[in-house]
Known about the structure:
By secondary structure, the chain is of the alpha+beta class. The protein has 23 helices and 22 strands. It has a nine-stranded mixed beta sheet with strand order 1-6-5-4-7-3-2-8-9. The longest helix is centred in the middle third of the chain and has 24 residues, at about 350-375. The termini are far apart. The model has no long low-confidence stretch (mean pLDDT about 90).
Amino acid sequence: xxxxxxxxxxxxxxxxxxxxxxxxxxxxxxxxxxxxxxxxxxxxxxxxxxxxxxxxxxxxxxxxxxxxxxxxxxxxxxxxxxxxxxxxxxxxxxxxxxxxxxxxxxxxxxxxxxxxxxxxxxxxxxxxxxxxxxxxxxxxxxxxxxxxxxxxxxxxxxxxxxxxxxxxxxxxxxxxxxxxxxxxxxxxxxxxxxxxxxxxxxxxxxxxxxxxxxxxxxxxxxxxxxxxxxxxxxxxxxxxxxxxxxxxxxxxxxxxxxxxxxxxxxxxxxxxxxxxxxxxxxxxxxxxxxxxxxxxxxxxxxxxxxxxxxxxxxxxxxxxxxxxxxxxxxxxxxxxxxxxxxxxxxxxxxxxxxxxxxxxxxxxxxxxxxxxxxxxxxxxxxxxxxxxxxxxxxxxxxxxxxxxxxxxxxxxxxxxxxxxxxxxxxxxxxxxxxxxxxxxxxxxxxxxxxxxxxxxxxxxxxxxxxxxxxxxxxxxxxxxxxxxxxxxxxxxxxxxxxxxxxxxxxxxxxxxxxxxxxxxxxxxxxxxxxxxxxxxxxxxxxxxxxxxxxxxxxxxxxxxxxxxxxxxxxxxxxxxxxxxxxxxxxxxxxxxxxxxxxxxxxxxxxxxxxxxxxxxxxxxxxxxxxxxxxxxxx
Length: 634
Ligand SMILES: Nc1ncnc2c1ncn2[C@@H]1O[C@H](COP(=O)(O)OP(=O)(O)OP(=O)(O)O)[C@@H](O)[C@H]1O
């Protein structure tokens, strides 16, 4: 044995460590309980490392194969001890690992520090606090460590008060691994409690796959105090479900785990579990719940999945890990790349997180596609609960637009019920010969959509029309040009070209009728003046005398109303009145004399607006006019 290893040596911390210690104690104080998470995480890593080395050198396990972490405290001595039987450290390793920071990016890290507590705390989090976080709560830290494979008398004792230097000396240690003993600072006695320690461990380290053990405590009635027993118990679940291979997990276990993390008592509808390797390394276990939470539409509601870094719990509701339109998804993402102390702010900027978000969105879409294809009833249930949220994806996730379009479901004239069951592909497959567009109508309610006068010609010709009445629909439609090369067209827009569906004789007839009705059209234009943009003859109506449409480039009436209701400015676009030359009422109007004609014109426009779902500016005038015309007194 060399001279140096026999004596106690005092060494200085690397300058950066001194700086880091100082910063950490001041910036992370409000988050001090993380020290336990960091130390347990290191202990778990040490066990992982030993497990790995022992693959080639089983003798390192010294017959003691079970790896575990022990956490204990001593009230009288005011110490907390975290022990593991992992890989341990040699003297040189301890000097290097616990005295210097040898990490890439160290210089950049220190250059970025500003002295602003909050910003620095964030940076430190990003950098990783690790072992040094012990000094937030302890004014003395002792490390007793014995490298796996080294004899009992070749252990080391590392000691520091966090004030710039540490000592290292030879020591004896019975078992391999590392004990870390923290002597708490004044005022930190709260941590000297079994309840407190267990609480922190459960919160942050429950899914550490190695058992974390603590001594049992029992209430002794005679002594009137809790006594610490010799017997130990495991305080974490000691198994991270998502880290196991799929084939080792039963459906029942997947379901139980879902209930546990989602605080749901119902089974999930579907899940996807994958380990992603490559540039970014992570495991995802994502679930679709059966039912939407009551506050799905509350913008302030917390959503997102649980984030773990290397099996250590980091945060709940990490909403950055999934796009907003998938906010109904629950589950766990466990990253191997992110720093343990990652904050929400860092998540927003991280490239690893971006990769996770994109990868997870694809997985969730894949899970939904699978459900839509193979479990139609479940997909219908999903759509009823979350369809409106998924529709937001059309505008939010351009990269996956094609996939999202295929997942959409609509009500249509084919089914005639409000249930949204028709996929765009279903529609496309039953398009009429000569039809090259997908037709839809939007309205406030399903009833208004399905009774829209615009539908008449489509009904007559047997052409299916999608009936859209969710609030999000108009917004969503503004992002969809076509599906599979077929343009989506509103039947409530002017210039609707049904030409392809009319035969030659029909077209000729229509031209003649238009000519015949030109005088009445001109009279209507004059009578209505500024109230309309234009008046035209239409062949889209069957049972209604008239309807209103908007110019193809104008915003739909429905969207204008939605915007107004939301208190937003909507460009005023005037409606175009279209009249049905085949209707008896138009025939009657044609015959009307000068005074009466003006009344008829207003009545036609108002009833067309009403049928559209609009509210009239002067409803009383409409009623008066209608009554007087009914009585033939105009
Ligand atoms: N219980 C332990 N057993 C063995 N080695 C340890 C133990 N705790 C710490 N170490 C060693 O000390 C090193 C430094 O630990 P520290 O916690 O400061 O940083 P880290 O774990 O590398 O990174 P992070 O900041 O992300 O936690 C570890 O990489 C490890 O080699």
